[in-house]
């Protein structure tokens, strides 16, 4: 079922890009920092990554957006435990500009992949990995200054919620 959701999301994204080219007016490329929240914050450190965003203009102040990226969170463990969680967000949203300030709710899926290795446990070394695809929501906003975009959002991903900070540069197309 989760593979079907991922396939459907990818298909919708590419159909969106292919059939709606007349209204696309910019592409944003950004660096991200993710601050894990709740139980996720107890197990993982700050995450880092990058995202790309495409904007389809509905009018001067309103855009439909598509975002694709990668974030990596390191595990918060002692010297005997190492690992990470990788996230690939595939999100669609509505971006509304209010003279530089904006709001942008988003919905989509996030592909998760985690890996843990443990050594010197008294029973030898062992580890494992896990992958899943989760439905995700985010509520965010920010400020644009020229071609620069400074954003903040709360990303809800099952039990891996985080506060995301994004600095991006937008290119006109």
TrEMBL record:
InterPro entries per the UniProt record, alphabetical: Autotransporte_beta_dom_sf
Domain of life where this protein originates: Bacteria
Keywords noted in UniProt: Signal
Stretch forming the signal peptide: 1-20
Name listed for the protein in its UniProt record: Porin family protein
Species in which this protein is naturally found: Arenibacter antarcticus
UniProt lineage: Bacteria, Pseudomonadati, Bacteroidota, Flavobacteriia, Flavobacteriales
